[in-house]
Design brief:
The protein is an alpha/beta fold and 323 residues long. The chain is 44% helix and 12% strand. It folds into two domains: 14-194, Class I glutamine amidotransferase (GATase) domain (Rossmann fold, 3-Layer(aba) Sandwich), CATH 3.40.50; 211-323, Orthogonal Bundle (Arc Repressor Mutant, subunit A), CATH 1.10.10.60.
């Protein structure tokens, strides 16, 4: 079942500041600014800023003309720090560190894409927390900031008020996760489709596959995942998935887990819970009807898995997003 979102109505837009620092990577900056760009379906306002207004020298011959300085961080509800080149050798200025600490102290949400996590670390915002960064720099971060629990095997880490993500593409996963937190799975899926991106990859998914996977097999599995999303209400066993992919169940399970970091049935369960969340947000179907459409069988089964994964009941979840 597909849902369309023509417009999201809120009292005020969520304010997002993208902090561009010297050496910033274009993809990281673009992801942060583009995902939250204002349009009828997006209740966000974005301002791109630097340590000061004017030109910020980027990486690989690029530069950015920013219209705002650090004062923008006092305006923002969420601050995104894109990654930059040579993070272990680049120290954030005292002004940047102080501005981030002040924003954190007043309750702003602060998120880093890729090596932007080094700026959060320099400001002391990751002390005693679990965090991640691009896998190429995780060892450098752990050595430079031993008080941080650096996890090199995840796409992003949500520590509540402070979030970090791995390499550039995982910045999309992080931004979609923030939208899910703010406005639910329906809007996040809508944005994911607009970006032609997977609407949801769990933060615990591995940053990269530990083994080489033949390209044709990867394409077959992608087709199988797409097929499964259109048949969530059916009996999707491991055998059924493997049959669609044209491989044995054992091969399918092994290669799927190596590619995604989770088992096929874990992926199916999360997809079904996502479908249930979307139906709870966008329809008036009963919990029993939603359980059937999402392939979870009974309302008791839905409540059990929903509580384990989302941390609340379907009824409470619906009430939150309806309010």
């Amino acid at each position: 079942m597909r849902t369309s979102i023509a417009q999201v109505t809120t009292t005020t837009d969520h304010r997002v500041s993208v902090l561009v620092l010297d050496g910033a990577k274009a993809l990281d900056v673009g992801i942060a600014a583009h995902v939250f760009a204002k349009r009828p379906s997006m209740p966000y306002e974005v301002r791109v800023c630097g340590e000061r207004r004017g030109a910020v020298e980027g990486w690989n011959g690029l530069a950015y003309a920013v219209s705002h300085g650090l004062e923008t961080l006092t305006w923002a509800d969420t601050i995104l720090v894109p990654g930059y080149r040579h993070p272990a050798e680049t120290s954030a200025s005292a002004a940047v560190r102080d501005a981030l600490r002040e924003a954190h102290a007043r309750g702003a949400r602060i998120a880093a894409i890729s090596t932007g996590a080094f700026t959060l670390a320099a400001a002391g915002l990751l002390d005693g927390r679990r965090a991640t960064t691009h896998w190429h720099c995780t060892h450098a971060m752990q050595e430079q900031y031993p008080e941080i629990e650096v996890d090199e095997n995840v796409l992003f880490v949500d520590a509540g008020q402070v979030l970090t993500s791995a390499g550039a593409a995982s910045g999309i996963d992080l931004c979609l996760h923030l939208i899910r937190r703010d406005h639910g799975v329906a809007l996040a899926n809508h944005v994911g489709r607009r970006l032609v991106s997977a609407p949801y990859r769990p933060g615990g998914q591995a940053q990269f596959a530990p083994h080489s996977i033949p390209e044709p097999l990867g394409e077959v599995f992608a087709n199988t995942r797409t097929w499964a999303l259109d048949h969530l209400g059916e009996d999707l066993t491991l055998a059924a998935l493997a049959r669609h992919a044209g491989v044995s169940p054992r091969t399918f399970s092994r290669q799927f887990s190596a590619d995604t970091g989770i088992t096929p049935m874990q992926w199916i369960l999360r997809a079904r819970i996502d479908r249930a969340r979307e139906l709870l947000e966008r329809t008036d179907l009963s919990v029993t009807q939603i359980a059937e459409r999402a392939g979870l069988g009974s309302d008791a089964n839905l409540r059990r898995h929903f509580g384990q994964i989302v941390g609340t009941s379907p009824t409470a979840y619906r009430r939150t997003f309806r309010d």
